[in-house]
Amino acid sequence: MTAATRGAGTNQEGVRRHNLGTLLRHVHDTGELSRAELTGRMGLNRSTIAALVSELDTLGLIEHSSPATSRRGAGRPSAGVRIREDGPYVVAVDLGVDNAVVARVGLGGKIWHRAAAPIPEDPEAWMVGATIATLVRQVVALSPADAPLLGIGLAVPGLVRRSDGLIRHAPNLNWHDVSFGSIVLAALALDVPIALGNDADLGALAEHRRGAAVAVDDLVYLSGNVGVGAGVITSGHRLEGVAGYAGEVGHLYHDPRGLPCHCGSRGCWETVVGAPAIAEALRCSPDQVPRLGEILDEMTTAPRELRSIATDLGRGLGAVVNIFNPSLVILGGYFLPLFRLCRAEVTAGLGDRALMPARDSVRLTLPGLGNDSVLLGAAEMAMEPVFTDPVASLGSAITDAPARLAG
Amino acid sequence: MTAATRGAGTNQEGVRRHNLGTLLRHVHDTGELSRAELTGRMGLNRSTIAALVSELDTLGLIEHSSPATSRRGAGRPSAGVRIREDGPYVVAVDLGVDNAVVARVGLGGKIWHRAAAPIPEDPEAWMVGATIATLVRQVVALSPADAPLLGIGLAVPGLVRRSDGLIRHAPNLNWHDVSFGSIVLAALALDVPIALGNDADLGALAEHRRGAAVAVDDLVYLSGNVGVGAGVITSGHRLEGVAGYAGEVGHLYHDPRGLPCHCGSRGCWETVVGAPAIAEALRCSPDQVPRLGEILDEMTTAPRELRSIATDLGRGLGAVVNIFNPSLVILGGYFLPLFRLCRAEVTAGLGDRALMPARDSVRLTLPGLGNDSVLLGAAEMAMEPVFTDPVASLGSAITDAPARLAG
After folding, report:
1. Per the domain annotation, does A398 fall within a domain?
2. What is the mean pLDDT of residues B179-184?
3. How confident is the model at residue B78 (pLDDT cuts 50, 70, 90)?
4. By residue range, what is the domain housing residue A35?
5. Where in this chain does the entry annotate a coiled-coil region (chains A, B) (predicted)?
6. CATH no. for residue B172?
């Protein structure tokens, strides 16, 4: 892309901003890069790279990682650049069915602070908005006073309309057509860019960018929480569908005589392998469901009922593998500890249902980002504009967020 | 793409051949275009277009569609071009589980001749290769003596490895790891390019190029024959997976207590809605299955058992719609007459299982190419090289195919 736009003369300012954003993304993706590496990756000459680095430095986005003497040394190829730690940040929100996690995340993907709160059953959207606003205030209060807040990224367990971020349907929250971005901004009384996305899609995004699936072009991130969803990247492209609702594998038929599902149907896969089923297998009370991750983490052997769920997890994965033919499936959420405990059962279930050539192509694995894939994916989504046009993104950032949100 | 490569100076011959192929594809897609339209679509100036048209004319690929006086008239913008009818062609093969159809197809997608033969149950690959070779000879014998045969495209009801065209698994033919392209070439004793693809993928390709889904970026072509498969185009890209096996929706779980499936599992969707189930609902004997299309075509009302299958077709479609969020689902194969007979039942079944926002985004429709979607998709696949580099493709074409295959 860079090479194709390099020579365009019609919109030089646009090309320069695009190149600024691309350079910033390279540093964001890798943590630290030398100018020689930037020259190679960008396909631009050294003096152009030096000018871009200088401007990103002036904008407060990056800093030099070599001694101060080489600070102006465009002629020294070993001089490196890295993300500026006290620079711009985003707020990421992972809204689950039973709890919400909010974090302040810097460019480069570092989580600086986090805060969490429980979400009650069948919650009112405005009350959840108020809860999230409180958590946002907590993490922003801990940020440097003048570091720009670029925006908020919010991961949702439901179908999010791509065109405007409307939550069309979040079955396990029992929400239909909720403009939740506006609700959160109203609770914060803050005019900042906010983006919403499906939780599993964002898990896939983060794992692809800096987790277990870097450089993997065909992957599925399976999110196992109260509901089950898939984020899919196929031939390097995110699977979205016409409106952004693709990947709802939790409502695959698993047993037509099965339990009713929040979606209104019956016997969906998530009724068999979702958190309520896992809790029942462990004889946990419903109020223990939010602690299910810890409970599973502490277990060293799995009871028979849990192994049976692991087999059904593998069987449903067979369908997922037949449909997407991925090279990697990443098991996130409660499926992380479940897979760690019952790897043999999951693998056997997969073998029951996957066609052999597709099964032979795939590897099941744990998230490279642990329990933070979705949260970091929400951060990546919120950062997207700064990699498209850093100047414009900084222009819409809030530079006194701690003061504004404390007031 | 054209605009980006126009100015490249490093490989002018490559750029010229690319532009030749792109111009030919525009004429192929639309049937006939004026030079003014070509200038607009290609983003090239009139004299470059005139030179490309002249070369494609010399190569015998296109002809002028306006009176002879304007034949050299680059200055007359209304002069049109169209595909030359006695020019190059491909042979397309639609290998089904119970019959094979072979056709001679010209650039522009015109089917000139076709021939068909039954395929026995659990057939030997070499015998099917011999049957197809006989059909190829029949259709090639009817072609102009010196028209170039560009290649053969073969649609297969199974998983085809993208890298080399190996049939990894065709459950309903009971084939594993069959290098069927080589078998057909051996039976023909002809060294001609041959390409293999999955039948549903090719149905989607043809419907996207010249059928019901022109300009639709998110579509599913559902192929209903003995097996069931999906060809998916998502955000304008073909869904392939890491090795080319994606889209195997026929093996979605439909009922864990259901019938055994050829894939080795049980209760797959295709055991409920595939041809054997339809035949049983109509009380047809197994030897009538190959005539199922005609039988369904002749029906005006559906018996209860058939309506029940239509409901299950819709329910499985619900999962397909939840997974891909397409704007269009095209019902091909036996699902064409089934949907025509039982539209209400299919739609109701879809409503049972699809999440509302995804259901609201989708329309179910019949193939624009009738029963020829897969066959024409195989032709499109075989033509692909001529749109990449017409000169190279003609270089590997057979220019005396009728004589060679008669010998």
Report:
1. yes
2. 96
3. low
4. 2-83
5. none
6. 3.30.420.40
Give the pLDDT of residue A287.
Answer: 81
Half-sphere CA count of B112, side-chain side, radius 13 A = 23
Among A218, A319, A355, the residue with its CB nearest the CB of B159 is A355
A and B: number of Cβ contacts within 8 A: 161
CB B194 within 8 A of CB B184: yes
Give the nearest chain B residue to A320 (CA atoms).
B252
pLDDT in tens, A371-407: 999 999 999 999 999 999 999 999 999 999 999 998 6
Query: What is the CATH classification number for the domain harbouring A41?
Result: 1.10.10.10
Q: Which amino acid is at A258?
A: G
My answer on whether B152 and B252 are in the same domain is no
pLDDT of residue A174: 93
Q: Measure CB to CB from residue A237 to each of B235, B241, B256 and give the nearest one.
A: B235
Q: Is A352 on the interface with B (CB under 8 A)?
A: yes
For residues B262 and A208, give the distance between their C-alpha atoms in angstroms, rounded to a whole number. 35
Report the side by side order of strands in the sheet with B32-34.
B32-34, B80-83, B62-64
Please name the residue of chain B whose CA is at the shortest distance from the CA of residue A254.
Answer: B253
Q: Do B218 and A249 touch (CB under 8 A)?
A: no
Q: A71 and A48: one domain? A: yes
**Segment 301-340 of chain A within 8 Å of chain B by CB:** 315-316, 318-319, 322-327
Instruction: Select from A59, A83, A107 the last residue of a domain.
Output: A83
| Binding-face residues of A in 126-165 toward B, CB within 8 A | 159, 161
Q: Is some CB atom of chain A closer than 8 A to the CB atom of B242?
A: yes
Q: What is the ipTM of this complex?
A: 0.90
Binary contact (B171, A355; C-beta < 8 A)? yes
A208 found inside a domain: no
Identity of the residue in B217, B243, B353 whose CB atom sits nearest the CB atom of A361: B243
| Closest CB from A235, A243, A249 relative to B323 | A249
| A2 interfaces chain B, CB cutoff of 8 Å | no
pLDDT at A324: 98
Name which of A166, A239, A266, A350 to mutate to probe chain B: the one with the most chain B Cβ atoms within 10 A of its Cβ. A239
CA distance B175 to chain A (A): 12
Mark which residues 29-88 of A lie under 8 Å from B by CB.
none
CA distance B250 to chain A (A): 9
Query: Do residues A246 and B308 make contact, with C-beta atoms less than 8 angstroms apart?
Result: no
- Taking each helix axis as running N to C, give the angle between helix A12-30 and helix A373-388, from 0 to 180 degrees, rounded to the nearest 10: 150
Contact A329, B241 (CB under 8 A): no
* Same-domain pairing of A57 and A150: no
Parallel/antiparallel/unpaired status of strands B167-170 and B228-234: unpaired
- Do both B217 and B338 map to the same domain? yes
On whether both A252 and A313 belong to a single domain, the answer is: yes
